[in-house]
Amino acid sequence: HTGPKPLTVTTSLNMNFMRKPDLAPTLGTFEMMKLGKRLAVVRVTLATETAPGLPVADASATYAIQPDAKI
Questions:
Q1: pLDDT of residue 20
Q2: Is the alpha carbon torsion for 46, 13, 63, 40 positive or negative?
Q3: Which of 33, 60, 66, 70 has the fewest CB atoms within 10 Å, counting from its CB?
Q4: What is the pLDDT of residue 67?
Q5: Element (H, E) at 60
Q6: pLDDT at residue 56 in the model
């Protein structure tokens, strides 16, 4: 976990919508694919509480981390 850092920017964001969600709360499952010195790659899967095994969307993002960023 790097925590909030200034100048951390999104370099890539891809979202795939797979089906219409039920009218229910939507939950996200987060996975850190890679955390390096300069890049962080994450994946998020969204599903409803009523059908947790059937994703409604999937997203992947890459963030560029500034090496000298201070909190």
A1: 94
A2: positive
A3: 70
A4: 76
A5: strand 57-64
A6: 97
Predicted TM-score (pTM) of this structure: 0.77
| Type of residue numbered 52 | P
Q: Could you give the CA distance from residue 26 to residue 50 in angstroms, rounded to a whole number? A: 9
How far apart CA 26 and CA 58 sit, in angstroms, is: 12
CB 7 within 8 A of CB 67: no
Alpha carbon 65 to its chain centroid, in Å, reads 15
What is the model's pLDDT at position 2?
63
Q: What share of the chain is helix, strand, coil (3-state, %, to 5)?
A: 0, 55, 45
DSSP at 8:
-
d(CA 20, CA 38): 36
